[in-house]
Every structure is written in C-alpha cells, then in structure tokens.
Design a protein that fits this description.
Helix content: over 70%
Number of strands: 0
Strand content: under 5%
Number of helices: 25
Oligomer: single chain
Shape: elongated
Largest sheet: none
Radius of gyration: 32 Å
C-alpha cells in the first residue's frame, strides 16, 4: 500500500505550482485550493490502488473538466488573460493514464478523442487514433470514427480512404463499414462534381437543367435564330473561348466521375456477402441518396443487374429492380410517365420470376412482400396536390393491383407480425383507399383477432393518424 501512496503523492506534488498560481492570482481562495487538493488526493489514492476501475478515471476526468471550466470562467470575470498552467494538460495526463491501464475500454478512448477534438489538438487526436486502432483493429466503429475525423476535420480523401480500406482489411465482415465506404465515395464524387460545376467545367444547358428539375422548358417562349460572330463581323471573346479547350467527353468519361470506384466497392462487398441480396439493397439505398449525380444511374443499373443475376426471385432484389426507374424522380417531373410505364413492366416481370420458387404459399407471400414495398413507393407520389389526373389514375390502378397480391398473402396466414400490415393500411387510408382498407382489416383480423391496432385503423381521425406516422 505504501507504493500506491507514494505514487499518489508524486502525482499530487506535480500539481503544487498550479495550485500556488491559483492562489497568487486570486482565482481561488486558500480554502477552495485546499478543497481541490483534498479531492485530487482522494482520486489519486483510489486510482493508485488495486481496485481502481475505468469509471473511477472517468469521474476524475469529469471533475477536472468542471474545475477547468470554473477556472476559465473566474479568470475571465477577473480580467486575467492567461495563466501558466491550464487544466487541459492535466486532463490529457489523466486520460493517457486511463487508456494505458484500461486499453480495452473503448469508452475511455472515445472520451479521450472527444476532449482532444474539442480542444482542437489535432496532433494529439492523430496520435490517439493511431494508438487506439493499433489496440482495437477489429472494431468497425473506431475505423469509421477515424475516417470521419479525417474527412470532416482534415478534408483528406487519401487519408480517409486509407482508414476505410485498412478497416475493411481487419473487419471485412462489417456491413456498416462497407456501407459507409460506399457512401464516402459517393460523397466525394458529389463534391468533385459540384466543384467542376462552379469552375465551369461541367456546364449544362437550360434544357438539361429543366429536365432534371422536372420543368417543361421553353413551352411558353419564342425562340429566335442564333446570331453568330460571322453575322456581325466582330470577334467575340468569352471566358469559354479564353479557357484551354479540353474535350468534354474526355472529362466526363474519367473512371472516377463515371462511378468506377463505387462499382468496385459494391463488387468487393458482394463478394464478401455472396448470398445476402438484402445487403445489396442496403448498398442500393446508399447510392439512391445521390440521384443528382450523372453516374448514379449507371451505378444503380449495375447493382440491379448483379442482384438479378445472383438472386432473381428474392424479395429485396425484385424490390430494387422495380424501384430503379423512379429513383430521383419527383412528382412534377416530365419523365415520371415513362418511368411509371417501365415500373409496370418490371412489376409484371417480377411476378413471373417469383413463379420459380417452390410451393404456391411461398410464391404468394413473396408476391405480397414485393407488393408492400411497391405500394409504399408509389404512395409518396400521391401526396403531390398538383399531380396530373391521368398519372394519379395510373398510380391508383397500380396500387390496387399490388394490394390484391397483399390480400392473397394475408390469406396464407403469414407468421409475420401485424406491424407491417397496419403501417400499410394506414398509408392506404391516408390516401383515401377506404374500400381497400376495409378489405385488408377484415382479412388481417382473421390472423390477429386480438390486435386492437387493427380496429384503430378504421376509427382514428386522419389528423391523429398522420401524427403517428410522422
């Protein structure tokens, strides 16, 4: 015990000059400094003993943080601009001791990192990350944290990729790490594309912008013949003519902007999880969050082709196959009618692919699961108040057709919980499909007769229902 006491006394003696300065500059009184010394002595003796825990270090760090905040507040009120000793160094010292003794406790490492980032001690953060990853190479969350720091604070794509790729080398089984890496590459492409557009390297005509924004450009305009420099006899010098000519096709066809890296990440991820098409749909959703990118369509098509070849009768695969034409399209888009026609064709083809499954009951349930996803996807377009009546009629017919498959699936007494069915019934009710809701509730009550939420679907007001869905 004498050894532990000597160690505690040694650490306490190191803080004596700091406490003397606090008294000399009248930041704290002698009684307050004595209280601080007594509290530190209690912590140091507890940490030096054999029964110390990680929570003891965490409480010590919390005390020092609060003490340093109080010191800075009083120093500011007294007009003291600077002191020779700050609480930052002592807090780092305690955290360093904590992570050395309990190097397997990731919560202490995260506390260490969060404090260092808050203090903007970037060199310290880099050192902590290196030590942390060396001791915990099999933790995907820590690799993601390191990559996030490199991207958000340093904006270094090479360093960020390095963390992701090294993390995948140790944690190739982590689906979240694969998803985050794919999302990183999509964010980087979006950043480069936005920069090229600002610099004028990716110029788009008003017609192209209007198609992307869902507007019918030029329908109310009168167009005139273009006047060329030859017609006026003058030489017109513009920014485009002064800029060195680089073939636009050469710039746009670079592998990075064409989506080659996300496609390679997807291929490597599916090689790691060859029999999990559901994970493929998660990666599909990651790319679908960037519909404004020119390469997104190509990447999504590649994903759908791969999934259709690997598992053509899987629910997740067929759901992506049906959704793909609608990715990025708003209800006001002029491309929506053509996309809906393609969705109808793909839905019929998906229903045919399900026929390859063994057993009629499994086929019916799979068709019902696919139809549920389709209804949720199509119902979002019905919320647009100025939707074209013909498009609304097509959407209504498609939803009714899909709901017929859902009812057939309910009649097979699917063992799944009623939550998905109730959510679907709520969506139908909000969009005025009262007859479909009534038929669905009747069929569902045969399976879950004691479920009070099914009866609530037909009794609650739409306002209350909308609040629940939000």
């Amino acid at each position: 015990m004498a050894g532990a006491s000597d160690k505690a006394r040694f650490y306490l003696e190191q803080s004596v000059p700091e406490l003397q300065e606090l008294i000399r500059k009248k930041i704290f009184t002698k009684d307050e400094v004595s209280s601080i010394a007594q509290k530190r002595s209690e912590f140091e003796h507890k940490l030096s003993g054999r029964g110390s825990t990680a929570s003891d270090y965490a409480r010590y760090v919390e005390y020092e943080m609060n003490l340093d905040a109080l010191r800075r507040t009083k120093a500011k009120r007294l007009g003291i601009k600077a002191t020779s000793y700050t609480g930052q160094r002592r807090i780092f010292f305690v955290l360093d001791r904590a992570t050395r003794k309990f190097h397997g406790d990731t919560s202490l490492w995260m506390l260490y990192l969060s404090f260092a980032r808050k203090q903007k001690a970037h060199k310290k953060v880099a050192q902590i990350i290196t030590n942390m990853l060396r001791l915990h190479p099999a933790s995907p969350e820590l690799w993601i944290y390191a990559a996030d720091y490199a991207w958000e604070e340093r904006a270094d794509i090479a360093e960020t990729r390095g963390y992701m790729q090294r993390g995948l080398r140790f944690c190739s089984h982590s689906k979240r790490l694969w998803s985050e890496y794919l999302k990183l590459e999509m964010i980087y492409i979006a950043k480069i594309s936005a920069r090229r557009r600002i610099l004028g390297l990716d110029w788009r005509s008003p017609q192209q912008e209007s198609i992307q924004d869902g507007e019918d450009f030029g329908q109310d305009l009168i167009t005139f013949r273009n006047v060329t420099p030859e017609d006026t006899g003058l030489e017109i010098i513009t920014a485009d003519s002064a800029r060195p000519k680089i073939p636009e096709s050469k710039i746009a066809s670079t592998p990075a902007l064409a989506g080659a890296i996300p496609i390679a990440v997807f291929a490597a991820a599916m090689k790691e999880f060859p029999e999990e098409p559901t994970f493929g749909t998660q990666l599909f959703d990651c790319v679908a969050e960037f519909p404004e990118l020119d390469c997104a369509k190509r990447i999504l098509q590649h994903m759908v082709e791969y999934l259709m070849a690997a598992a053509p009768a899987d629910v997740a695969t067929l759901t992506c196959f049906i959704r793909e034409p609608l990715v990025g399209l708003i209800a006001a888009s002029i491309l929506l009618p053509r996309a809906l026609m393609e969705v109808v064709d793909r839905f019929e083809l998906a229903m045919q692919n399900v026929s390859s499954l063994e057993g009629s009951v499994e086929q019916t349930r799979t068709r019902g699961a696919i139809s549920q996803h389709m209804i949720k996807c199509l119902a979002t377009y019905l919320e647009y108040p100025e939707l074209d009546p013909d498009i609304r009629a097509v959407l209504t017919a498609m939803i009714k057709t899909a709901w017929a498959h859902c009812l057939q699936a309910l009649k097979t007494k699917s063992p799944r919980s009623s939550d998905e069915t109730i959510a679907l019934l709520n969506i139908l009710r909000l969009h005025g499909f009262k007859d479909l809701v009534q038929a669905g509730v009747t069929s569902a009550l045969r399976i879950w007769p004691a479920d009070p939420h099914l009866l609530a679907v037909t009794s609650e007001s739409p306002v209350v229902l909308l609040q629940q869905l939000q």
